[in-house]
Amino acid sequence: MRAVWYEEFGPAGEIFQVGETKTPAAEPGEVLVRVHASGINPLDVKRRAGDRGPMMGDIMIPHFDGAGVIEAVGADVDPGRVGERVWLYEGHMRRALGTAAEYIAIDASRASVLPDSQSFAEGACLGIPAMTAHALVYNDGPVDGQTILVTGAAGAVGNYAVQMARNGGATVIGTVSSDEKAARAQEDGATHTINYKAEDVAARVKELTDGKGVDRVVEVELGGNIETTVKILKTSAVIAAYASMAEPVVPYPFYTLLMKAPTLHIIGCFTMSEDFKQQSVADISRWMAEGKLTSRVAGEFPLEEIAAAHEMVEGGRQVGGVVVTL
Hints:
By secondary structure, the chain is α/β, with parallel strands linked by helices. The chain folds into two domains: about 1-125 and about 295-325, Quinone Oxidoreductase, Chain A, domain 1 (Alpha-Beta Complex); about 130-270, NAD(P)-binding Rossmann-like Domain (Rossmann fold). The chain is built from eleven helices and 15 strands. The protein has helices spanning about 10-15, 40-50, 120-125, 125-140, 155-165, 180-185, 200-210, 220-230, 255-260, 275-290, 305-315; strands spanning about 1-5, 15-20, 30-40, 65-75, 85-90, 105, 110-115, 145-150, 170-175, 190-195, 215-220, 235-240, 265, 295-300, 320-325. The strands form three sheets. Strands 3, 4, 5, 6, 7, 14 and 15 form a seven-stranded mixed β-sheet that branches. The chain has a six-stranded parallel β-sheet with strand order 10-9-8-11-12-13, sandwiched between helices. The protein has a two-stranded antiparallel sheet with strand order 1-2. Helix 4 (about 125-140) crosses helix 5 (about 155-165) and helix 7 (about 200-210) packs parallel to helix 8 (about 220-230). The longest helix is centred in the last third of the chain and has 16 residues, at about 275-290.
């Protein structure tokens, strides 16, 4: 099969190799998927650079997420799944061989039905961002009637979080950095948007909520935003954070937080319970089938141009997911 791999960590333009390697076979409990699109996340970029653990074999085929068609099944898997269009997650989890190849053998539970209305490129965008967003919004149960602030509402995770919170009956306020991103967030279901570069976020949230504040914050930059966040929380509100790149050591204003008594969740999609993961998959698949969850594809690259695709993700300016196609 055709695949991309690297034999050492380093810059995208220097280490990737494209060639032929052995096609895997579906072991018991697995499906063999012909991959049509492989999604690229910041985690994939960091892992390739050597920032997320050691090499796991002589070669590493990158990427956790993807989409394609099941071509064979292993023992203990329903043979009726052959021919099924699927989206994939955790393809690179604790192993060397990910989705940037023509085929991947993967646990059957990590291959979920992709509706015909969704392209393979759209399906490859789901995985890490959508599973993370679901946990951020629903980790504490239903959100109907709540007001939720989604920071970075036009980002990969934020985009899904806006849609999922809207689907659950919440009023969504999204922070963005431009008018273009505000329009995107509103298209996806944000009731209000705030340009954090031009507006006082805390003052605007208080205005939009009649001074009541928000029930939940979906947080992309916990450390950098904490001083603002504490000003806009309702008593006993929830902060659900999945990143803190600018301020990885978070300076907690303890006594200000004490007055609000919030709950803080640090959310990682890989560490959620198996039951919650399967609920996430069920909700994501149902919303797609109902036309209530869409994916934005910011860039599609042929497999041979994977370095350029990684560099686009590293740049961090795209609105939507980046995929390589096979």
